[in-house]
Amino acid sequence: MGSVRAVVPGIVKDEQIFQPIEPGFASYPKESFEFVLGTATGLDVARKAALVSTPSGPRSLPYDYLVLATGARCASPDMPWKNANSHEETIDLLHETTEKVKAARHVLVAGAGPTGVETAAEIRFEFADKEVVLLSAHEEILGGDSIAKGVENEIVRLGVQVKKNSRVKNSRPLPDGRTEVTLVSGEIIKTDLYLPTMGLVPNTEYLDSSLINEYNNVKVDECLRVKGVDNVWACGDIISCQRSGFMLTDKQAAGVVKNIELAIKGKDQLVVKGMPVDVFMCSTGRNRGAGRVGWVKVPSFFVYSLKGKTLGMSWINKYTEGTQW
């Protein structure tokens, strides 16, 4: 979540959103743990082996129990909302984006989901002199959620211009460094900085087509077991059921761990449930927000305290150390 604030120059330090994973496992016996840095390239179900490409060459990692949690990437590869191919590439991409934000006088954010809304709000909050335009492909932002009008009022008060029913058809770089964005309606917008936030692509290319659906999500049952494979589970952005998000993924991770424990003991699996009520919160700058718990709307200060204050960055050490669970 912190990426929407990290694109604003001088606000977020790299170490606030990036932490090494390996040190969190230092307390485990070396014979019980191995950290492998690489890219998943295949899954050999018959041999029960995960195939990984590493800097030193390909590896085949045997398993008794396996969890697939390879996440998703941005549909636009030059955007920093998700990890790039490597940590170094992600850092470089983020720094490039912050420099572009700093230099731009006109910023066009396409996609009025949570990422787009929060990005537009963060930029306008910091730079009152920049023209920030948010494009929504639909009649309402945030997919018409019940908090959409309240969020729109908040960001418009900041100075964000919201253009509804404005779906992007294509974009192209101009010789002067700007970007020309063409909408489905035929309208053309020229901007100093174009930030598309639409769409995620599941990182599932390494899996056999029998394991994924038409949207390239891993097919799982209600216990988050991968369908058609023994002793393999999946969670996060790649699964076919339940929406993602850090609070929901926390529940999924805890549920998968519990089910692996049950599998080892030869006991029945448990259904992995999401949140008891649907919680949706959207930050609208660094000191406000809007949200709901179920159908009940919550005050701005509540959203700020739970989300907007740090955008989840205060939890990063808990994740890397494993103490979050």
UniProtKB/TrEMBL annotation:
Pfam families, A to Z: Pyr_redox_2 (PF07992)
Gene Ontology CC, one term: cytoplasm
Keyword Acetylation carried by entry: no
Keywords per UniProt: FAD, Flavoprotein, Oxidoreductase
SUPFAM superfamilies hit by this protein: FAD/NAD(P)-binding domain
Keyword Oxidoreductase appears in the UniProt entry: yes
MF term (GO), any: flavin adenine dinucleotide binding
Domain FAD/NAD(P)-binding: 31-248
Superkingdom of origin organism: Eukaryota
Family from the record: Belongs to the FAD-dependent oxidoreductase family.
PANTHER family xref list: APOPTOSIS-INDUCING FACTOR 1 (PTHR43735), FERROPTOSIS SUPPRESSOR PROTEIN 1 (PTHR43735:SF3)
Name assigned to this protein: Oxidoreductase ptaL
Species for this entry: Colletotrichum spaethianum
